[in-house]
Amino acid sequence: MGWTGLFRIGALPLVTLLPLAYLKMPESVSWLVSRGRIEQARVISAKTGMPLTAETASTAATAAEPAKQQGAPGFAGLFSSYYLLATILLGLMSFTGLMVVYMLQTWLPTLLGPLLGSSSALWILFFVNAGAAVGALFASRAADRFGPKPVVAACFLVGAVFIFLLTTTRSVGLLVPIALLVGLGSSGTQILIYGMVANYYRTNVRGAAVAWCAGFGRLGGVGGPYLGGILAATFATTAQVTANPSAGNPVFYVIAGVAVLGMAFCLVVPRSKDHPVAVQLAQTAPSVPPGPAPVITAPTPPIAASTTSGPAAAPAADSAARATGSPLPRPRLYSRILVAIDPTPTREHEQVMRRCHELGQITGASIHVLYVAPGHVVPQSDRSLGSGVDADVGAADRAAMQSFVDSLAASGIEAHGEIVAATEHDIAQVILDRATEHDVDLIVLGHELHVKGRHAHVAERVLDSHPHRSILLAKPPA
Question: What is the pTM of this model?
């Protein structure tokens, strides 16, 4: 085929993937809403499971306003004092990650060739890349559940350990599993870094941030093979390796050390200022409590409605029965139920409402409705809500929430409602915190909080944390 044939294969995505991406890749929901294309955004939201940032067309005129309040967009925002430290550290992390990748990709066959033979050395490189492809899939799922920072740091560590282990054996059978984990700790880690960066920054800086990490990281990709060449010429020439099979080990030690340096950069990246664990929306203007508290809350009178008739009056009935000596009412199956819902099409809310009415009437439990809305903290100078929350909760959302609570109360069910803002990775923690706070017996997760793509981990997290509490997953509508 020759070298020109390899370049032709490399060019195939231009005529295959590029047209498919242009024709079939959906546009960002938040981008469509920010430009007033609400109906198109609803269609994409229903198809992909990504929540709308505005629920009604009436909010379209102001949908772009929060973006203006967030701060400077693009590279100006990326290198502002708000993000500067994180930008430098994330860039260095990408630099070290790509240095590891390209040192291995360029010099691994050369270093192992004299020891294993050219064919076996190339197979080891193949398994390194296979480990990156497969390992990144599993690691990205772990990052969705536990957050990207600890997972990326752990992958760097895995890479360092198994790059070192490449020097301990010359058995191809043992080198294959080692190579798979080397792939996870090198190219696989770099894949995760881009996801970490994309989730770290606010929307109007995100594109510049990914470009920065990819571009600055390429300097490591350029320097890695050069440094590897200097090391190989110094320690691992063919004559040196033939005379002493361990002569090339210092090269692997240096690559492992670069991976450890990448882990160190990852661990000191500060927590994103745009992704709190949970922030309760405030109707007044309190300040955010200082310090690294796991949950940031702002006192606010929650949406609430209640009634003294029907099953909600069971405690009073118990007292009356005891006073008169009458038989006590039959014990209730549940006392308190937490219902967590997410911005979603009306038909799904209606389906959850029907289940909640049935549960409340059958069990006599009080119901606390938790509306989890997407949100983030904005800079101190831009805090329009006082508590530092910039969340997409409009009048329509509040009205829908109040209607839900009122309908439960009208059925004789003691009901309360609360709207909180949380990021994608924090939804489960918000639910668990509120479940503990209200000491509930049953957690009901709306369909969109356990089925749709990026929220699939919520049910697992809640179940793992509170296996003694029942969890009901509302059946989605047909």
Answer: 0.56
